[in-house]
Design goal:
123 residues; mainly beta; 1 helix; 63% strand
């Protein structure tokens, strides 16, 4: 009987921990180093289940998020941008901690280190 009670309690604890996924919905801002200095980017996120959608706005205008995922404290999404006639896919991966998201951003198909920056929840 004690073993059964233990397993029920453990299962309940695991379910409650997974239900406490970080809340990423809303607006976030980040100062991101670019070719022309520091640029402000604004992320607007909507979450339905584990599906993340929204926009990223910055120096290149506002672009839709595609292939978005929010699971636990992790977020990932892509943004298609056009720069000087070149189409690029920006790949974002982030880890949420309170009112901050630590992001890495890469350009699909390009070598080189990922760009790192931190977004903060807009108040």
């Amino acid at each position: 009987m004690k073993l059964k009670t233990f397993f029920v309690a453990a299962a309940s604890l695991l379910l409650s921990v997974s239900a406490m996924a970080a809340d990423v919905a809303g607006k976030w801002t980040a100062e991101v180093q670019g070719r022309n200095g520091v640029q402000t980017s604004t992320f607007t996120f909507t979450v339905e289940g584990e599906k993340l959608s929204g926009t990223v706005a910055g120096a290149r205008g506002e672009n839709a998020i595609t292939d978005g995922m929010a699971k636990g404290d992790d977020v990932a999404f892509n943004v298609a941008v056009s720069f000087n006639g070149n189409d690029m896919k920006m790949v974002y991966k982030g880890k949420i901690s309170g009112d901050e998201i630590k992001f890495t951003r890469t350009v699909e198909g390009r070598e080189g280190p990922a760009q790192e920056f931190t977004a903060k929840r807009a108040k």
